[in-house]
Amino acid sequence: MQSLKLTLFFLFLISFANAQTKISGVLKSTKGIPVANANISLKGSYDGTSTDSTGRFAFTTTETGLRILQFSALNFVQDSVQINLSNGNITLNLILKEAANLLQTVNISAGSFITGDKKKGAVLSSLDIATIAGSRADVFAAMQTLPGAQTAFAESGLFVRGGSASETKTYFDGMLVKSPFNATVPDQASRGRLSPFLFKGTSFSAGGYSAEYGQALSSALVLESTDLPAKTTTGISLLSVGGGLDQNIRFKNSSITAGGYYYNLSPIYGIIKQNHNYIKAPEQLGGNIQYKLKSSETGMFKIYASYSRTRLALYRANIDTPAAPRYFSNNNLNIYINSTYKEYFGDRWKLETGIAYNKDRDAGLMTVNDYSRQDHLLEGKATLTKFFGQLSNFRFGAETFATGRKESLNGLLRKYDDQVSSGFAETDLFLTHKIVVRLGLRGEYSSYLQKYNLAPRTSLGLKTGIHSQVSFAYGRFYQNPEDEYLIIKSTGFEQADHYILKYEINTPDRNFRIEGYYKDYNQLTKLNNGIPDNSGSGYAKGFELYWRDKKSIRNADYWLSYSFLDTKRNFRDFPMMATPSFAAKHTVSVVYKHFFESLHTQFGGTYSFASGRPYVNPNNPVYLADKTQTYNSLSLNASYLTHVFRQFAVLYLNVNNVPGFNQVYGYQYSANGLNRQAIVPAAKRDFLIGLMITIGDNTFIR
Amino acid sequence: MKNLTKTLVFIFALISFNSFAQNYSPKFLQAATNGLDQIVAAKNAEDYIKAENYFDRIAAVETKEWIPSYYAAYCNLYAGYFTADKDLKDQYWDKALLEIEKAGTLSANNSEIYALKGALQFMKMTVDPRNRIYLMSESAESLEKAETLNPENPRISLIRGQDTFYTPEAFGGGKTKAKPILESAVAKFAIFKPANAIEPNWGAEPAKALLAQCK
């Protein structure tokens, strides 16, 4: 009897323990669409199931009492509901909220091109930049294939949306680079100093950029350097114009890279006829050293230092007295040091600090006059970012830089020094994951100008579909007049207001964007009888198209840029409102790259077109009314991937202006206006051959 | 001092005891085995996501075990592999990287975890090779780490072989280069014995299949 009771008791226990509750139901999104493959789980147990394609689910559990049922799916916010498992089977109608994810989250994008290896929606990677035909691995030349930027002709720099070269500023890890270009020959644009391989990201902004960046009226080119290299490697580059060697040494949490190079253009100038009569073809010797330390899981300290010397001398044609060509020589010295540190504190705060120093000295002989010029910049900067909510952040920071120029002509010295101090605060507020507003304010004080400015900036992004968004930006921008005017006289800040409206569609394989803008310039520097003041003004308006497609043609990648620009300004020595000579109304770039697997070779082509640009004809009473012929250029390159002594190597060939289009940058007139001479490229065609070898790695990684 | 030595010895004894004793509860062992059956039966992305959900549920309870997160990552690797949409691929692999990261925090210096991480990084690269070429070196780094931890892990050779097989010859890949790596993978698989029934033991068949294509 006793044993029977016990047996019954145990049987009861077992049946109780096996009492199963069936939980079933359907899971839908807030829009009423069934959510498939969602995970339904009973918290604290293995029990649960996945929803089917109609969002339905059913499972049984032996758990009892009050429990939590969790449900989650990709792109949805996890949610839960409390259920009571003691009252028999349960049927549920569950609703899941869409999550903000990177793909569907709006971003701040008006005016800017997100580029870089690690960024979503990136337009150009560092490898892209290096392999654009015609760019010859020059960051600035590569940026000229993007809409908004003009082809640079007779002057170094990035001319953006009607802005002069000095209105585009270059930032290296957030720090201003005062002299980003190599020594310049008169009437010829020169290359940038910084190799694209230093950077993992280059963000090109044609307007409306963050309050973090000051002292730029038109454009900010933001370069972000790479982190620790993966391996210890040696790189050798042999070029038709010289060569370089660099050594990467990777330690556990740090790395040292040291490199040197020597370029001499005289052998190549012996082969390719130059339009200048060189006495000393450009010769450059330089070196750089980098140290990077990963100071913690999230902390990074970097220092980059470079040194270079360039020498050149030539005779320039003298249109007034052809028999007496004008002599020009230049010895350039450039020192650049950039040191930054960044670290996260907790998961809500980020600190970025840096110190940068730049010195650029040019000296030589101009006809019979000794000249020298020295620019310097010492900058300190700190920025704090506080992240809040799911995506929003608040940033504020301060920077100060001591800058100025010293120059002399035949022993006559003049100089100016300025301390520009600024502070900024900015917030990115995500109202929902489809709407973001950026509000920013920047203030600056210049000790030399003895003036303050206050620049408000705002942007708005609105997601219109999974891959599309509309953006708007307004911002006010200030910068100091160019050194050549400041050294004469302290004036006031130049000012520009940007209004930008953009629509874009981005998928992993294709990008499309159309952007319209209006820029209002005020207080531009103008010379009145040789004395600068701030009475200049102007405007620029236009629209731009960009289309990139990496999918339609197998192994190919191409993009098209078109820019329409309508701009007039009255500045510098202009007697009236006129379109400046660096502004072409229509600019087109087509970049095509095709990788042929069987040939181990990538072929590339870049076609650039610019409609005629104005030039000053002293015989025409209307200022800047004549126009040059249209500009056409077709460059081709080939990169052959191979091995040399079992080490990975790339054999590279680039030819500029393959069809030999006549290219005219402008005209120089004789003093009496009777004779003129075209300003043309240094050579009609030019080519570069290079062999890059990487020792220590058998893959295509540097 | 003596006390300290004693304590240290005791701690070391505990550590080694824990690392050798596979004290899985029968319930966990059974659940993991069921999950592995689901993986074996999986034929498409949906099946892999369902298996991943299953391992996720186990991972939520067994907060000290690395195996559920490891297999959740493994399932997402294949879910992405069987998906055509690049955005979705990316999302599955992002999630897989988070899961393998979690597995890594539960079991430090685990060769299997680094091997799978290397495979995931490589697949992330293939979504947009031009923009993500840096992931190739990150993947190589993970695989190297996996190798220093256990050179006999056959999955490292399989993953390397696979990556090499699908990399164009010009970029240092191709069938000829993949062949010796896959041969070593097959040889290592032949002698590989997992510590127990639920530790990673996959890859022998794909290694053979891929090697066959190299001939």
UniProtKB/TrEMBL annotation, chain A:
The keyword Signal applies. InterPro entries: CarboxyPept-like_regulatory (IPR008969). SUPFAM superfamilies: Carboxypeptidase regulatory domain-like, Porins. Keywords: Receptor, Signal. Pfam families: CarbopepD_reg_2. Residues 1-19 form the signal peptide. It comes from the Bacteria. This is TonB-dependent receptor. It comes from Pedobacter lusitanus.
